[in-house]
């Protein structure tokens, strides 16, 4: 529309049912001349409260072909220079973003992910209008009126399948930069979120693809809008076990909307859909108890397979595929929501999958590692009880010996041999037994395993398997990390045992002292290692290859390297490997150096350790195959689950410690005790944690999540302090002086080994 051709005939624009950018400016100009904005307010109220009106508004004038895009500027003589530049940029951006659909554009048809609304025009209109307070009120009131009608249309009338342009109204409303302001939070935004959450899956996917082209700033604005609504609703209500946050429509709807932004944030970042680990050729052996499980109605649980998010399937992208999102994943976590979430109830809704009950575990991005770990804990415990119940029924039906636990009886000086033989037998005969609760007994010791004996078992197994003299792993002195040794003489069974131990540690909520690079956890989750993973696992090699990629001279003449690589194994033997057939005859040039680097990384991280890693992963999946682990956690969170937090905050531990047997926070001995502990060096603090809890790492969430109890154990004595590592209880006599307390405590934590009955 050319505003110079036709002067406005009416002031009130009563029959105007949709808007264009030019028409808004025309009305704005008319209102400005008369200093009366009521006609514009009425038009906005009418158009923005009507789904049909909003869908028709701010349309792109035409889907241009490539030839038309080139001649667009020449034809647009009425536009000033700035507008022409914007049009050209917008056209170029559209062309670049829709590379996959360029053939459709040439054919005169819009691509499947193209929308008919002119987003840039909408942004310009909002920036002009939102400065006026009265006009903003019109947007607010219109949204309150619009949203219930839109929700009804989507729920009952299947309106999107009839007209895909219906998506336009959501795109237009979401460009309002004031959506997160207090005026919207009470009524307008909750109603709009409920409508947006009713969009069918294809529409959500289309919205994700559109928003993934937005800048990080625009993604952050939308994220903050939904996060603010969730936080506002959580803080302004008293949620508890009787009044569940899962039943709050506004919080649930905002979380579903946040999921769309989360996937857009992921898709807009660096995504690697390839480099997937191949599935194990041999399936994990079926349990011999399948018939009874079917009898008990357990077969659905086992055959269903791991849960997959429907939007993830629709988009063809997984969280693990994203190497670097536009915004850090942490910005999608809502801490106030995590604080009020009743995880036992939420887990029930997650497992039952009813339509009328929402589970926040279906949106794991909003949960922190502590909350997700609690959900995993419930899942593991229920599986343990399920296996126990099946075992009891089997013993009744078939007269088999009752064995409701995964019992391991080991000798301290033969711990690997004993554990390997027992676990291998279980893995071959009945892998389902690995999902029973672990119960460890050290031969010749009286300790009863309520958790503490298992902790020491894991610690000793890890110490032994990662012993450099055994040679299963190489150790990098600079990074302090271990990597699988491709030249190891150990059997695949040993690597399978490592995998089983890692899985059992997660399953039994134990922390291990293992030091793997992140690529190991990515590989466990199904992604192969690539060049960028070398930065973590092989930093010196990464730096060398990076310099090769950035070298400005002639690689072939100056470096004289070929597609045959050589390196020494752990025992000093020279090894060569051809990255391509007859690699020693193929020089690395400026043209093929990227291929060389990719092949080098593929060999180091995947091919050279393929046999060892397959055994390792197989052992891990024996325990975790039916767990929601992959669904809930990212690789860095898996590392936190297995290794715990390296940050030891003893101030937080002091805050959460409880006292028993006559001690209180203000007791003389307790005040002296904390003064001594805070004065310890880092290594002594780790020894103290090891002595009291059975591990020298903090649990997920830090030491503040550790429930430690200090109990009085008699009057002044020469006896040493003792502990129940199963329950994190420290038994502390009431020593007469601070010096004696320090001397006794240091002796106890330094020479502690083994279990006995006191």
UniProtKB/TrEMBL annotation:
Reported EC number(s) for this entry are 2.3.2.26
What the entry lists under InterPro entries is as follows: E3A/B/C-like (IPR044611), HECT_dom (IPR000569), Hect_E3_ubiquitin_ligase (IPR035983)
| Stored SMART domains | HECTc
**Reaction catalyzed:** S-ubiquitinyl-[E2 ubiquitin-conjugating enzyme]-L-cysteine + [acceptor protein]-L-lysine = [E2 ubiquitin-conjugating enzyme]-L-cysteine + N(6)-ubiquitinyl-[acceptor protein]-L-lysine
Keywords tagged on the record = Ligase, Transferase, Ubl conjugation pathway
Q: Where is the active site?
A: 726 (glycyl thioester intermediate)
Spell out the residue ranges making up region: Disordered.
65-113
- Name the Pfam families for this protein: HECT
Q: Where is the HECT domain?
A: 430-758
The protein, known as: HECT-type E3 ubiquitin transferase
Q: Which PROSITE patterns match?
A: HECT
Question: Main EC class of this protein?
Answer: transferase
Instruction: Provide a Gene Ontology MF annotation, just one.
Output: ligase activity
Q: Which domain of life is it from?
A: Eukaryota
Q: Where is the composition biased (Basic and acidic residues)?
A: 65-77
